[in-house]
Specification:
The chain is an alpha/beta fold. It has six helices and ten strands. Strands 5-9-8-6-10 form a five-stranded mixed barrel, surrounded by four helices. A hairpin with a 2-residue loop joins β3 and β4. α3 crosses α6.
Length: about 250
Protein backbone atom coordinates (compact mmCIF):
# COMPACT_ATOMS: atom_id res chain seq x y z
CA UNK A 1 0.00 0.00 0.00
CA UNK A 2 1.36 3.39 -0.99
CA UNK A 3 0.92 6.55 1.05
CA UNK A 4 -1.21 9.16 -0.71
CA UNK A 5 -1.82 12.86 -0.23
CA UNK A 6 -5.32 12.08 1.05
CA UNK A 7 -5.75 9.08 3.43
CA UNK A 8 -9.02 8.06 1.81
CA UNK A 9 -7.11 7.19 -1.39
CA UNK A 10 -4.87 4.64 0.38
CA UNK A 11 -6.79 1.53 -0.65
CA UNK A 12 -5.58 -1.79 0.81
CA UNK A 13 -7.27 -4.96 -0.38
CA UNK A 14 -5.82 -7.24 2.31
CA UNK A 15 -7.97 -8.76 5.05
CA UNK A 16 -9.04 -6.50 7.91
CA UNK A 17 -7.62 -7.15 11.37
CA UNK A 18 -11.10 -7.05 12.89
CA UNK A 19 -13.65 -9.34 11.21
CA UNK A 20 -17.37 -9.92 11.86
CA UNK A 21 -16.84 -13.59 12.64
CA UNK A 22 -14.80 -12.63 15.72
CA UNK A 23 -17.97 -11.54 17.52
CA UNK A 24 -20.55 -13.91 18.94
CA UNK A 25 -23.32 -11.40 18.19
CA UNK A 26 -22.69 -11.45 14.43
CA UNK A 27 -25.57 -13.14 12.54
CA UNK A 28 -24.86 -16.60 11.15
CA UNK A 29 -26.37 -18.95 8.54
CA UNK A 30 -28.70 -16.45 6.91
CA UNK A 31 -30.64 -17.13 3.71
CA UNK A 32 -28.79 -16.59 0.45
CA UNK A 33 -31.16 -13.77 -0.54
CA UNK A 34 -31.70 -10.55 1.38
CA UNK A 35 -33.70 -7.34 1.12
CA UNK A 36 -32.43 -4.22 2.90
CA UNK A 37 -35.16 -1.63 3.37
CA UNK A 38 -34.40 1.92 4.48
CA UNK A 39 -37.68 2.36 6.32
CA UNK A 40 -37.95 0.59 9.66
CA UNK A 41 -41.72 0.92 9.89
CA UNK A 42 -42.18 -0.49 6.37
CA UNK A 43 -39.87 -3.44 6.98
CA UNK A 44 -41.68 -4.27 10.21
CA UNK A 45 -45.09 -3.92 8.52
CA UNK A 46 -44.16 -6.27 5.67
CA UNK A 47 -42.69 -8.77 8.14
CA UNK A 48 -45.95 -8.70 10.08
CA UNK A 49 -47.96 -9.12 6.87
CA UNK A 50 -46.08 -12.32 6.01
CA UNK A 51 -45.96 -13.57 9.60
CA UNK A 52 -42.17 -13.59 9.28
CA UNK A 53 -40.20 -14.89 12.26
CA UNK A 54 -37.14 -13.10 13.61
CA UNK A 55 -34.22 -15.41 12.82
CA UNK A 56 -31.38 -13.21 14.03
CA UNK A 57 -30.46 -9.69 15.05
CA UNK A 58 -27.86 -7.15 13.98
CA UNK A 59 -26.30 -5.32 16.90
CA UNK A 60 -24.77 -1.86 17.14
CA UNK A 61 -23.99 0.61 19.90
CA UNK A 62 -27.12 2.64 19.14
CA UNK A 63 -29.75 0.25 17.82
CA UNK A 64 -30.38 -3.46 17.33
CA UNK A 65 -32.19 -4.49 14.15
CA UNK A 66 -34.20 -7.71 13.81
CA UNK A 67 -33.55 -9.92 10.80
CA UNK A 68 -36.77 -11.46 9.56
CA UNK A 69 -37.17 -14.47 7.28
CA UNK A 70 -39.79 -14.13 4.54
CA UNK A 71 -41.06 -17.24 2.78
CA UNK A 72 -42.02 -16.04 -0.69
CA UNK A 73 -43.33 -18.86 -2.87
CA UNK A 74 -41.02 -21.28 -1.10
CA UNK A 75 -37.95 -19.03 -1.35
CA UNK A 76 -36.35 -17.93 1.93
CA UNK A 77 -35.41 -14.24 2.03
CA UNK A 78 -33.80 -12.33 4.87
CA UNK A 79 -35.36 -8.91 5.49
CA UNK A 80 -33.69 -6.19 7.53
CA UNK A 81 -33.80 -2.43 8.01
CA UNK A 82 -30.72 -0.66 6.62
CA UNK A 83 -28.43 1.50 8.72
CA UNK A 84 -28.55 5.11 7.55
CA UNK A 85 -25.47 6.32 5.66
CA UNK A 86 -22.60 4.73 3.81
CA UNK A 87 -20.46 3.77 6.81
CA UNK A 88 -23.26 2.04 8.69
CA UNK A 89 -24.63 0.07 5.77
CA UNK A 90 -21.14 -0.87 4.55
CA UNK A 91 -20.47 -2.64 7.85
CA UNK A 92 -23.96 -4.12 7.74
CA UNK A 93 -23.45 -5.67 4.30
CA UNK A 94 -20.02 -6.90 5.38
CA UNK A 95 -21.70 -8.75 8.25
CA UNK A 96 -24.50 -10.09 6.04
CA UNK A 97 -21.96 -11.45 3.58
CA UNK A 98 -20.04 -13.14 6.38
CA UNK A 99 -23.34 -14.77 7.40
CA UNK A 100 -23.92 -16.33 3.98
CA UNK A 101 -25.89 -13.71 2.04
CA UNK A 102 -25.04 -13.77 -1.68
CA UNK A 103 -27.82 -11.73 -3.32
CA UNK A 104 -29.10 -8.36 -2.11
CA UNK A 105 -31.73 -5.92 -3.29
CA UNK A 106 -31.93 -2.67 -1.32
CA UNK A 107 -34.79 -0.20 -1.44
CA UNK A 108 -35.47 3.25 -0.08
CA UNK A 109 -36.07 6.90 -0.80
CA UNK A 110 -33.91 9.44 -2.61
CA UNK A 111 -34.08 13.12 -3.36
CA UNK A 112 -34.89 13.79 -6.98
CA UNK A 113 -32.58 16.15 -8.87
CA UNK A 114 -34.85 16.28 -11.92
CA UNK A 115 -38.62 16.87 -11.97
CA UNK A 116 -40.14 13.51 -11.08
CA UNK A 117 -43.36 12.77 -9.19
CA UNK A 118 -43.36 11.50 -5.63
CA UNK A 119 -42.96 7.73 -5.75
CA UNK A 120 -41.31 7.56 -9.19
CA UNK A 121 -38.99 4.53 -9.33
CA UNK A 122 -35.30 4.80 -10.21
CA UNK A 123 -32.86 1.89 -10.54
CA UNK A 124 -29.29 3.07 -9.97
CA UNK A 125 -26.92 1.81 -12.67
CA UNK A 126 -24.03 4.03 -11.57
CA UNK A 127 -23.19 6.07 -8.47
CA UNK A 128 -20.91 9.03 -7.83
CA UNK A 129 -18.76 8.21 -4.82
CA UNK A 130 -19.14 11.32 -2.67
CA UNK A 131 -18.83 9.24 0.53
CA UNK A 132 -16.08 7.50 2.42
CA UNK A 133 -16.83 3.84 3.01
CA UNK A 134 -16.55 2.62 -0.59
CA UNK A 135 -12.89 3.67 -0.74
CA UNK A 136 -12.04 0.98 1.80
CA UNK A 137 -13.52 -1.76 -0.42
CA UNK A 138 -12.46 -0.83 -3.93
CA UNK A 139 -9.74 1.36 -5.50
CA UNK A 140 -10.41 5.10 -5.82
CA UNK A 141 -12.58 6.31 -8.69
CA UNK A 142 -15.08 9.08 -9.29
CA UNK A 143 -17.95 6.73 -10.04
CA UNK A 144 -18.79 3.08 -9.52
CA UNK A 145 -20.91 0.98 -11.86
CA UNK A 146 -23.75 -1.21 -10.64
CA UNK A 147 -24.01 -4.82 -11.82
CA UNK A 148 -25.61 -4.50 -15.26
CA UNK A 149 -27.13 -7.96 -15.09
CA UNK A 150 -28.85 -7.19 -11.80
CA UNK A 151 -30.09 -3.83 -13.10
CA UNK A 152 -31.63 -5.55 -16.13
CA UNK A 153 -33.17 -8.23 -13.89
CA UNK A 154 -34.83 -5.58 -11.70
CA UNK A 155 -36.09 -3.78 -14.80
CA UNK A 156 -37.57 -7.04 -16.08
CA UNK A 157 -39.39 -7.72 -12.80
CA UNK A 158 -40.75 -4.18 -12.58
CA UNK A 159 -41.93 -4.47 -16.18
CA UNK A 160 -43.79 -7.67 -15.29
CA UNK A 161 -45.40 -5.85 -12.37
CA UNK A 162 -46.46 -3.06 -14.72
CA UNK A 163 -44.43 -0.44 -12.85
CA UNK A 164 -42.88 2.50 -14.73
CA UNK A 165 -39.21 3.04 -13.87
CA UNK A 166 -36.01 4.70 -15.01
CA UNK A 167 -32.43 3.40 -14.78
CA UNK A 168 -29.81 6.05 -14.20
CA UNK A 169 -27.00 7.57 -12.18
CA UNK A 170 -27.29 8.53 -8.53
CA UNK A 171 -25.20 10.78 -6.30
CA UNK A 172 -24.20 9.19 -2.98
CA UNK A 173 -23.13 11.64 -0.30
CA UNK A 174 -22.32 11.38 3.40
CA UNK A 175 -23.57 14.88 4.17
CA UNK A 176 -27.33 15.26 3.84
CA UNK A 177 -27.18 18.93 4.85
CA UNK A 178 -24.38 19.85 2.41
CA UNK A 179 -26.25 19.34 -0.83
CA UNK A 180 -25.50 22.86 -2.08
CA UNK A 181 -26.92 24.57 -5.16
CA UNK A 182 -23.58 24.36 -6.97
CA UNK A 183 -23.13 20.68 -6.16
CA UNK A 184 -26.68 19.88 -7.20
CA UNK A 185 -26.14 21.68 -10.50
CA UNK A 186 -22.87 19.82 -11.05
CA UNK A 187 -24.35 16.42 -10.27
CA UNK A 188 -27.31 17.12 -12.52
CA UNK A 189 -24.92 18.06 -15.35
CA UNK A 190 -23.12 14.76 -14.74
CA UNK A 191 -26.37 12.87 -15.34
CA UNK A 192 -27.48 12.18 -11.76
CA UNK A 193 -31.21 11.64 -11.32
CA UNK A 194 -31.19 11.25 -7.56
CA UNK A 195 -29.22 11.88 -4.38
CA UNK A 196 -29.02 9.47 -1.44
CA UNK A 197 -26.54 8.28 1.19
CA UNK A 198 -25.71 4.61 0.60
CA UNK A 199 -25.68 3.32 -2.98
CA UNK A 200 -22.01 3.63 -3.96
CA UNK A 201 -20.88 2.05 -0.68
CA UNK A 202 -23.32 -0.84 -1.04
CA UNK A 203 -22.10 -1.53 -4.57
CA UNK A 204 -18.46 -1.45 -3.45
CA UNK A 205 -18.91 -3.82 -0.49
CA UNK A 206 -21.02 -6.22 -2.54
CA UNK A 207 -18.38 -6.26 -5.29
CA UNK A 208 -15.68 -6.91 -2.69
CA UNK A 209 -17.47 -10.10 -1.65
CA UNK A 210 -18.61 -11.04 -5.17
CA UNK A 211 -22.23 -10.67 -4.07
CA UNK A 212 -24.98 -9.71 -6.51
CA UNK A 213 -26.46 -6.34 -5.58
CA UNK A 214 -29.12 -4.02 -6.94
CA UNK A 215 -31.28 -1.23 -5.63
CA UNK A 216 -34.68 0.36 -6.21
CA UNK A 217 -35.16 3.98 -5.19
CA UNK A 218 -38.33 5.97 -5.03
CA UNK A 219 -38.25 9.74 -5.55
CA UNK A 220 -39.10 11.38 -2.26
CA UNK A 221 -38.17 14.99 -1.59
CA UNK A 222 -37.60 17.34 -4.53
CA UNK A 223 -34.32 19.21 -5.06
CA UNK A 224 -34.93 19.97 -8.73
CA UNK A 225 -36.54 23.39 -8.34
CA UNK A 226 -35.53 26.79 -7.06
CA UNK A 227 -36.83 25.92 -3.59
CA UNK A 228 -36.55 22.69 -1.66
CA UNK A 229 -39.79 20.69 -1.41
CA UNK A 230 -40.03 17.86 1.11
CA UNK A 231 -43.37 16.81 -0.43
CA UNK A 232 -44.02 15.19 2.97
CA UNK A 233 -42.33 12.11 1.57
CA UNK A 234 -41.83 10.65 5.04
CA UNK A 235 -45.61 10.14 5.15
CA UNK A 236 -45.71 8.16 1.89
CA UNK A 237 -46.45 4.96 3.78
CA UNK A 238 -47.95 2.98 0.91
CA UNK A 239 -45.09 3.89 -1.41
CA UNK A 240 -42.47 2.68 1.05
CA UNK A 241 -44.26 -0.56 1.91
CA UNK A 242 -44.91 -1.35 -1.75
CA UNK A 243 -41.23 -0.76 -2.46
CA UNK A 244 -40.26 -3.51 0.00
CA UNK A 245 -42.68 -5.85 -1.78
CA UNK A 246 -41.09 -4.99 -5.15
CA UNK A 247 -37.63 -5.68 -3.74
CA UNK A 248 -38.74 -9.08 -2.44
CA UNK A 249 -40.03 -9.99 -5.88
CA UNK A 250 -36.78 -8.85 -7.49
CA UNK A 251 -34.48 -10.78 -5.17
CA UNK A 252 -36.59 -13.94 -5.24
CA UNK A 253 -35.47 -14.98 -8.73
CA UNK A 254 -32.06 -13.26 -8.68
Amino acid sequence: MQTKEIPLLEFDQSKGKVCPEYFASTPKNLPERCVIGFSKSSVNAIAEKYGAPVISEMHSCTVNLPIYEIDLDGVKIALITGFLGSAGVAGQIHELCSAGVKKIVACGSAGTLTPKPLGALVIPNCAIRDEGASFHYTPPSYEIQADGGVVRHIEKILDKLGLPHTAGKTWTTDAIYRETEDKIALRRSQGCLTVEMECSAMIAVSNFFNVKFGQILYCGDDLSGEDYDSRNFSHATDVRRNLVEYALQCVKDL
